[in-house]
Design brief:
Elements lengths: L16 E5 L3 H7 L4 H10 L1 H11 L3 E8 L7 H24 L3 E5 L7 H14 L6 E8 L1 H14 L9 H6 L11 E4 L18 E4 L9 H12 L9
Parallel strand pairs: 1-2, 1-5, 2-4, 3-4, 5-6
The structure holds 3-methylbut-3-enyl trihydrogen diphosphate (2 copies) and magnesium ion.
């Protein structure tokens, strides 16, 4: 059983907070002779059933890596395509999530984001902010190092006394303030790296890497990941 006194999960073997690095959309499309944006479209369609399934399994928090601060390095048309796609799906998906009592949070920065996309994001956040079911954090325009630097900046602005600075306080200055520890990080797409994702919050996460590309990562795949997790022994430095 993946449990330990330091774990944030209840004693069920189910992670309370799962974070997904949804990688492999582009390669999924290229393998089929399709343009990369078709892969992103397929990837987005994959999210709704997974959220539903994980909610049923008792997961309380899901964080999805949708766009990293490093993804600005992609060709302009891909970046614009991704933003356009997000704007398109956000309204429809947030209405559906709202019906299911899901709370949507934004994890990241809105710097450099167009006014209309900002407006759609804020609308979705406002619509769902009082929901009491599953929490879905959308890591959009997110970078772990940028997040830490931003937290330090705000701690300095707030003139926090050096003696008051501890891990809990620091955590409250991160975009994930109020979220429990990340119990598990699942990365699809076959790469073995964190790509600057939740580098503070996932310090003691269980990592699960799979070669399956994100658009193909279905209920069966996530079931297998959960089963692997339940067999991990989390020690948090203890015995
Ligand atoms: C992940 O898929 C989605 C984003 C980074 C937005 P990729 O676009 O990285 O797909 P691959 O890794 O090129 O296959
Ligand atoms: C990580 O995937 C970011 C997201 C899934 C949004 P990348 O495809 O950007 O990661 P690298 O470039 O392979 O590290
Ligand atoms: Mg990738």
């Amino acid at each position: 059983m993946a449990s330990n006194s330091k774990s944030t999960e209840k004693d069920t073997g189910i992670p309370r907070h799962i974070a997904f690095i949804m990688d492999g959309n582009g390669r999924w499309a290229e393998k089929r002779g399709l343009p990369r944006h078709k892969g992103h479209e397929a990837g987005v369609k994959n999210i709704r059933p997974l959220i539903k399934y994980l909610g049923k399994r008792g997961v309380e928090y899901i964080t999805l890596y949708a766009f990293s601060t490093e993804n600005w390095n992609r060709p302009e048309d891909e970046v614009n395509g991704l933003f356009h796609l997000l704007e398109e799906v956000i309204e429809e998906e947030s209405r559906e999530l709202h019906k299911n009592n899901v709370r949507i949070c934004h994890i990241g920065s809105l710097k450099g984001i167009s006014a209309s996309l900002k407006q759609s994001i804020n609308k979705a956040l406002n619509l769902t902010k009082n929901n009491t079911g599953l929490t879905v954090g959308v890591a959009f325009n997110y970078g772990g190092r940028a997040e830490i630097v931003e937290a330090v900046r705000r701690i300095v602005i707030d003139e926090v006394k050096p003696r008051s600075i501890n891990e809990n306080l620091f955590g409250e200055y991160l975009y994930t303030a109020g979220f429990p520890e990340v119990d598990m990080v699942i990365r699809t797409g076959g790469e073995f790296r964190t790509s600057n994702f939740l580098i503070w919050q996932a310090a003691y996460s269980e990592y699960y890497f799979t070669p399956v590309q994100w658009p193909d990562f279905n209920e069966e795949c996530v079931k297998k990941a959960l089963s692997t997790y339940s067999q991990r022994q989390r020690r948090f430095g203890g015995l």
